[in-house]
Structure formats: structure tokens, C-alpha cells
Amino acid sequence: MKSFVFATNNPNKLSEIRSMLDGHFKVLSLKDVDIQTEIPETGDTLEANALEKARFIYDRVKLPCFSDDTGLEIDALQGRPGVYSARYAGPNCSPDDNMEKVLGEMQKATQRAARFRTVIALIEDEKETLFEGAVNGAILTEKQGEKGFGYDPIFQPEGETQSFAEMSAEAKNAISHRGRATRKLAEFLLASVS
After folding, report:
1. What is the secondary structure of 3-15 as a DSSP string?
2. Could you tell me the domains of the chain?
3. Which residues contact 48 (CB under 8 A, 6 or more apart)?
4. Whether 69 is catalytic
5. If DSSP codes are grouped into helix, strand and coil, which group holds residue 51?
6. Catalytic residue among 59, 69, 97, 125
7. Tens-digit pLDDT profile for the chain (194 aa)?
8. Strand partners, 66
């Protein structure tokens, strides 16, 4: 079975991706390939960050690898937090800190439209390929649900009555930004082995 390094140690992201590629490819974490250094994320777009992380890993392990970057883009905040979603409330902030900042900034907003976007950068045999997934929705007025991670408790996908944090992993993966980008990655990889 072919192995790919996923440039993350985030257990939530790993289990999401592994469940989607299960049985077809082995997905290794950074820990699995003994990379413990901080991976640079200096780009000002999701695409730039995803590529920067994937190149950093590929240069070190010379194994096929992929990396993702995800942003929550809120219309009322002119697209913020966007590329800065993970550290929106500051360098050592928690997901709760980030959600509190967004909810605070959205307190008086009547227009609550937002989208989650994920870009995955794949490097295989020195060839770079990008995959994007997006899901539209709205920012809730308060946190709802205990599942998921990141901004999931305050994001309700379009056409749904629950936040991402209230949905089962299967239901979320079926419509999520990361799920959509990962399916594109999976289709691309499976086409290469069929």
C-alpha cells in the first residue's frame, strides 16, 4: 500500500482524512516520519500556505505528501479570519478564543453569510497539484454542539439545521470543505493506481 505523509499532527484532521482514504493508501502523520519542527506558514493565501507546508515536508522526507490549509471567510468581516483562521485571536490562542473573537465582531451583524474553504497541496514525484473544497453557510449567534473542532460550533452549513459541531463525523464529511477537497484528492490518487 502506497504511503503519503499528511503534514499535520492534528488528530482530528488525521482521523478525518484516514477515514476517507482508508483501505487505499496509508496516511502517515508528521510524528510517524519524526518531524517535530514547526512548519512555516507565511503565505497570505490558503494556496500559498498549503504549498509551503507540503514543500517543507517533501524536502525533508522525499515521500509523497500533502498538506492542507483551511480558512473561514465571513462576508461581514471582509473575508476575515481567512488565512489567519487558526491564530485569529493571537499567536497562542485556543479555538474557543478564536470563536469568541468572531462572535464578538459579529454581535451587531445582520448579514451572517460565511464559507469554509480548504486547499490541499499534493507533491508526488516532485509534481505539485492543488485541490479545493468549499462549503457555504452562516455564522450562528452562539456556539452549538460539542463535536468537530475549530469553528465548527458556530458554523451552520447552507441547507442544514445543525452546526458542524452537532453533526456526526459521517454527515459532516459528506458536505464539508475538507471532505470535498479530500474527495478530489482521493479521486486523483485512485485514478493514478487504477
Report:
1. EEEES---HHHHH
2. 3-193 (3.90.950.10)
3. none
4. yes
5. helix
6. 69
7. 889 999 988 887 788 788 777 778 899 999 999 998 888 889 999 999 999 999 999 999 999 999 999 999 999 999 999 999 989 999 889 999 999 999 999 999 999 999 999 999 999 998 999 999 999 999 999 999 998 889 999 999 999 999 999 999 889 988 999 889 988 998 898 887 76
8. 6, 122
